[in-house]
Fold this sequence. Notes:
Radius of gyration: 40 Å
Shape: elongated
Mean pLDDT: 78
Helix content: 25-40%
Largest sheet: 10 strands, antiparallel
Structural class: alpha+beta
Low-confidence stretches: 58-63, 91-128
Oligomer: single chain
Amino acid sequence: MLNHKRLLPGQNLLKFILSWPGYLIWRLRQLGRFGLAAVDIVGASFSSSKKHLVSRMFWGRGSLYKSVFHISVFSVTSLLLLSGLLGRYLTNTSSAESLVIAYGQQTNTDLLEQGGSLSTILPISPNQTNFKIIQHVVQPGDTVDSIAARYSVTKDTLKWSNEKILSPYNDNVSVGATLYIPEINGVLYEVRGGDNIDKVVALTLGNKFDIIELNGLVGPEYSLEGKQRIFVPDGKLPPPPPLIPIPGVYRAPSGEPCIDSGIIGAAIGHLPAGSFGDPLCASSCQGYGYSAGFSAWHGGVDLTHYGCPIRAAGAGKVVFAGWNSFGAGYSVIIDHGGGITTQYMHGDGNIWVRVGDTVFKGQDIMFMGNTGNSFGTHLHLTLKANGVVIDPIPYIPVHWYGR
């Protein structure tokens, strides 16, 4: 049986006082080790997110990003190196001399023996090109959407970087075609003869300093000589104007007699009733159809036929005659005075009037076609009063088949 020696109250107090400094030192060491562990966790988080940080730094805005990034990398490297050395020192000290407090419990061991390594820092050369180009060969089943999603870029980036292969107006892509895809959104611009940095900036709306940094251009001229392609982060390319279709058949005004529909249009503005006639009154237009009427989303009426001459609905002055890039295709606009205008859309390219011409009611102005935003040969007829689109049916006596 163990023989326990009872201590006097004064001896207990003395022992407690003598052990108190040792207890404080032990606690401070524990706090130091927990602090080192926290530094190592931060270092690990930095390592896992370094790729994102590099992308944001080099592909963001501003010419000072690279310098800021290098300073940040140096600071974090120094912190990790210091934590590693300090961790080594504390570990060796803890192994050499254990602290035993009054109640006989030994201190805990280190959570981590080393805080970090220089090998976790991304090496960066100031002269290297800071982007990569991926080449993708289109496979059966590939679409512009699926390819863009696969490489985490937008469809526009895909089209801007392959403007000779992909159209800005549709998503058609040919199997076997090789596409060049940058790692982030922007314009992979193909350098042409006579190009310089300022011309590329003006064309792509890119940031000049980002272009210089990412492509390793050398000052003071920042020449593009020897460069086949350069990357413009966050750049944009304006779409080229759509091709204007050339009429397949050249036609002359028909001069056919107008067939009276027997319908009298209502008065509008300063124009009395009967001022307008049927724009498809030619004999070859008889039996035309009606496919769409006036609504909030369709500002006019669609009159369908396989193709015939379109006439001026009323007397007036031609204020537009030619190609309209906003969906009307070949189009004619006639001003009838007093804020009243009519517009005739989707002609086939045979236009027989010019801007400034004065036309009479029933005069041939153009031939019906299928140009612009059109899905079949027809006339889209629009009527405006003081710039406001209104339903033409009460005022223009169209007479489609079945009416």
